[in-house]
Amino acid sequence: MTVISRLPGPIHHRWDWQLRAACRAADDQLFFHPSGERGQAHDNREAAAKRICARCPVRAQCLEHALAVREPYGVWGGLGEDERIALLGPVRHRRR
């Protein structure tokens, strides 16, 4: 039988910032590109998402999270996929 009394308590304080995010009131499709989106449509959608990020009270926490977990998709903390890759560098796969 599993003894849950030894498990750590909830860590909701690590994720509470998401409740204050400006994007919660926006359509999530604005932050993640649909399959095949290119060119001006991509640029316009991403710019609209970044405008929401610009006024977000938890933008720094959002970006910190995205960089820490190497979030591969979407606009997080005001930066798109390519901008985050430029900050972190490409993912290096370990050899087995």
UniProtKB/TrEMBL annotation:
Transmembrane segments: none annotated. Keywords: 4Fe-4S, Cytoplasm, Disulfide bond, DNA-binding, Iron, Iron-sulfur, Metal-binding, Transcription, Transcription regulation. Binds 1 [4Fe-4S] cluster per subunit. Following nitrosylation of the [4Fe-4S] cluster binds 1 [4Fe-8(NO)] cluster per subunit. Its cofactor is [4Fe-4S] cluster. It is found in: Cytoplasm. [4Fe-4S] cluster binds at C23, C53, C56, C62. Upon Fe-S cluster removal intramolecular disulfide bonds are formed. The Fe-S cluster can be nitrosylated by nitric oxide (NO). The keyword DNA-binding applies. Residues 22-86 form the 4Fe-4S Wbl-type domain. InterPro entries: 4FE4S_WBL (IPR034768), Whib (IPR003482). Coiled coil: none annotated. PANTHER family: TRANSCRIPTIONAL REGULATOR WHID, TRANSCRIPTIONAL REGULATOR WHID-RELATED. Belongs to the WhiB family. Acts as a transcriptional regulator. Probably redox-responsive. The apo- but not holo-form probably binds DNA. This is Transcriptional regulator WhiB.
